[in-house]
Design brief:
This protein is mainly β. The chain is about 5% helix and about 40% strand. The chain has three helices and 24 strands. Strands 1-14-22-21-16-19 form a six-stranded mixed sheet, with no helix packed on it. A hairpin with a 5-residue loop joins strand 4 and strand 5. The chain is globular and about 55 Å long.
Length: about 375
């Protein structure tokens, strides 16, 4: 297969908002000023050979079911202190949602629904809840302006007006976003729609539709997280890879097409992903479905990015690997699990914006201002 550079870029341009938010997170979490911070030799890597089996079963975040009240899908999230075993034997202090040991439950929204999310802060510090990639009004976006102090509950209400996509949520408070996400405060959002072209794609959550949240971390000698941001404000490249909070992960899937919803929740690391002993096709980017499946040899995933791929395990187990870390996730097969059909040749109808439709030109000049980041 011939690699394709960033399939879905036109779609993100049409949808607009998700790509803007991805840039925003990259600035906030990574503080990316360019240069050597992103060189592969910048950090020691604890890599796992792709040929060796995974050790720990992949944790699948629970799927949070909404309460329906007067036609509104209501979700309750509570962010608080927790602890999680990353495999060292020690309990590591983390931040999570709804009592999970790390991360938060997966939210499932339906295009066309009205949604209400109530977020209660039980931490001893302020936070926010930001819906990364969601097309929502500013007052519901959960950015730094929507501060949730300890003991407070914040309510976001909005209609779901975008097509099917993989999004995520995380704190977005000025100055502490990176540290709270590093500690485990993040979760996935799945937006569904009634697109008949994609109806037969793998869609059984946790079986053939797997959330894959990639985060690099560093641990101190006592097993606690070693968070650091350098003096220039750049994000760090950390030596240990966690997938859904799992180190050396494997999961068992059907022998057939398997959908991986990939999320880069790292501060600064860019992943170069490929598949060993199997094929990979990309079916969706940050903004939703591509027009059709795109065969790839390698997929590049930057901080905040999401991508959906189909890995075919019909001929046996496969392994998702990264150019730096080696084995990311081993996919073991169980022939007794029902397998989905291969993806169809068309997944969505994407109408490009024509030049005649553009009636405003805007210029964004981004750079350092008084020691911080500025726009115009």
């Amino acid at each position: 297969a011939t690699p394709v550079a960033d399939p879905g870029a036109r779609q993100r341009a049409v949808l607009g908002l998700p790509s803007v938010l991805a840039v925003t997170l990259a600035l906030v979490l990574a503080g990316c000023t360019g240069g050597g911070r992103f060189d592969r030799d910048d950090a020691q890597i604890n890599a796992a050979p792709a040929s060796e089996p995974g050790v720990n079963e992949l944790m699948i975040p629970e799927l949070l079911e909404p309460t329906l009240t007067d036609g509104v899908a209501q979700f309750d999230l509570s962010i608080g202190a927790s602890s999680h075993s990353f495999g060292s034997g020690a309990a590591t202090d983390t931040i999570s949602y709804n009592g999970q040991s790390v991360l938060g439950p997966t939210l499932r929204w339906a295009s066309g629904d009205d949604v209400e999310v109530r977020v209660t802060n039980t931490l001893e510090e302020a936070t926010t809840a930001h819906w990364h990639g969601a097309d929502v009004p500013a007052e519901a976006d959960g950015g730094p302006h929507s501060r949730i102090d300890p003991g407070q509950t914040w309510v976001a209400e909005f209609p779901v007006i975008q097509p099917a996509a993989t999004l995520w949520y995380h704190p977005h408070l000025m100055g502490t976003s990176a540290e709270q996400v590093f500690a485990g405060a993040a979760g996935m959002i799945i937006v569904d729609d009634d697109n008949p072209l994609a109806a037969d794609l793998p869609g059984t959550y946790g079986v053939d539709d797997i959330p894959v949240i990639l985060q690099d971390r560093e641990f101190a000698a006592d097993g606690q997280l070693a968070f650091e941001i350098d003096d220039g404000g750049d994000g760090d490249l950390n030596p240990d890879l966690t997938v859904n909070g799992t180190v050396d992960a494997y999961t068992t899937v059907p022998a057939g097409p398997v959908r991986l919803r990939l999320l880069n929740g790292s501060q600064a690391r860019v992943y170069e992903l490929s598949v060993s002993n199997g094929s990979m096709v990309k079916i969706a980017s940050d903004g939703g479905y591509l027009a059709g499946p795109v065969p790839l040899d390698t997929l590049t995933l930057g901080p905040g990015d999401r991508a959906e791929i189909i890995v075919d395990t019909t001929d046996g187990p496969a392994t998702l690997i990264d150019a730096d870390f080696g084995r990311v996730l081993e996919l073991r097969t169980d022939p007794d699990l029902p397998a989905a059909q291969p993806p169809p040749p068309q997944l969505a109808t994407i109408d490009p914006i024509t030049v005649d439709e553009i009636d405003h030109d805007r210029v964004f000049l981004m750079g350092r201002v008084d020691g911080g980041w500025g726009i115009n």
